[in-house]
Design goal:
The structure is a homodimer. Chain A has a four-stranded parallel sheet, with helices on both faces. In chain A, strands 3-6-4-5 form a four-stranded mixed sheet. A two-stranded antiparallel ribbon of chain A has the order 9-10. In chain A, strand 9 and strand 10 form a beta hairpin. Chain A has one domain: putative 2-phosphosulfolactate phosphatase (Alpha-Beta Complex), CATH 3.90.1560. Chain A is an alpha/beta fold and about 260 residues long. In chain A, helix 5 crosses helix 6 and helix 6 crosses helix 7. Helices cover about 40% and strands about 20% of the residues of chain A. The first copy, chain A, is globular. Chains A and B meet through helix 7 of A and helix 7 of B.
Chain lengths: ~260, ~260
């Protein structure tokens, strides 16, 4: 199965943080991890960077969020159950973090599963950790392809890590992973042998003609729809409106913008 | 969302034994668990019962398998890595357990993930535990529908539990779960709100025109194909050739045949 010349580049999909340990072996210096939390953390991260945030720090707890934001002279925000987290002024809406609000400062965002995945991935020192969402789909794919070309061995494994909802598999994160798998398969430069990757690619292909319509049945879509967050949903499910990749800096713990 | 008259009947899909704990709350006396290990454990269980085995006992270890088979005057069998488990005479081929070999005796089968799921499910005392595979797809669906009608409240939750491969999500188990979801949805009597259920239903719909062809890319298909087990694969992936449901008996720990 392996290509000659060490060019094996595998794409794998991790459907829940609970399953992440299975991908540990792959997380070496030839591997990019893409953390995915479409509704809404990784959409908000891309949006805030696009609106001039100097970086985004993802933290688990509200108290840590407030403390770190004070240290960094940043904006503190985050959600619990789809609403602004108690104790914070700002939530997790990608539309909330405007240029005016951010003023070039960093955003400190409290998330649960997304942050957990960032921490898990860091332990294994992959080549890079980035975040992905439909809003920066093209950018994520372009970045991965460019990194593969840049690598000495022309080898680059990719682990698409879905944050899900309280460890459950989520339709929207799975579907975004499927979108990336589909595009990487089309290039002919990547091997897609992971069963989860094949599953989500099929899911994406069945839904890509109208992501918004086809994601209406997703449990987290319905949760946000009950809170009337339709503008957020529309923004999160419109592909490739933002042309940057949030890139995790191991030294500072900040996600910073790589404009493509 | 809930129907009136306590008729809520939910279908959920658990994609890996690692995720099973998330379904614990649903596992009450109104819930059927379907354990799925298409290649090949749950196919072999259905096949052995169809060929006259008086019951099937699933155990984890080879030593236990030999001991229990001696106690029950049964046939011991099982696989490790797709091959006959070291120490046993018979493997995990559904074609191996003929009427001649079985002679009306029980089969004691050593499996890993399937047995683990049976044990996990038992702890929560659901209404029933059955096993499913493509070979008894129609029977599984017919049985579930009949049990719903028989229940006093006309309420029956269903958890479709995929065994996977070493905790990884498997294409064939996911696809079988999708086949059951698809058929239960068509009845109009079940709610399909679980994101995993929607994912596997989409997967099944994309592949149902030719299961065998579409499962050739599955990692466990390829593992068995390398061992030239094409007859087994063909048998495992041909739907509804066996009209019974293996039903777990809590008192004896045996799966026994319910002929439909």
């Amino acid at each position: 199965m392996e290509k000659t010349g060490g060019e094996l580049s595998k794409v794998s999909v991790c459907l829940s943080p609970v399953l992440f340990y299975q991908y540990a072996e792959q997380l070496d210096s030839d591997c990019i991890v893409v953390v995915i939390d479409v509704l809404r953390a990784t959409t908000t991260i891309a949006s805030a960077l696009n609106n001039g945030a100097s970086g985004v720090k993802a933290v688990s707890e509200v108290s840590e969020c407030i403390e770190v934001a004070a240290q960094l002279n940043g904006v503190a925000g985050g959600e619990r159950e789809g609403k602004v987290a108690p104790g914070l002024e700002h939530g997790n809406s990608p539309l909330e973090y405007t240029r005016e609000l951010l003023g070039g400062r960093p955003l400190v965002l409290t998330t649960t599963n997304g942050t957990r995945l960032l921490n898990l991935a860091q332990k294994h020192s992959p080549k890079q950790i980035i975040t992905g969402a439909f809003v920066n789909l093209d950018a994520v794919v372009t970045h991965i392809r460019a990194e593969k070309k840049l690598s000495e061995s022309n080898r680059l494994n990719v682990v698409l890590a879905c944050a899900g909802w309280r460890d459950s598999v989520c339709l929207e994160d799975s579907m975004f992973a499927g979108a990336v798998v589909s595009r990487l398969r089309e290039t002919g430069d990547f091997q897609i042998q992971c069963d989860s990757a094949q599953t989500v690619e099929s899911l994406y292909n069945s839904a890509k003609s109208d992501l918004y319509e086809n994601l209406k049945s997703a449990s987290h879509f319905q949760r946000l729809a009950k809170l009337n967050l339709f503008d957020d949903l529309r923004f999160c499910l419109t592909p490739s409106t933002i042309n940057l990749v949030p890139l995790f800096n191991v030294d500072t713990g900040l996600l910073i913008s790589k404009v493509l």
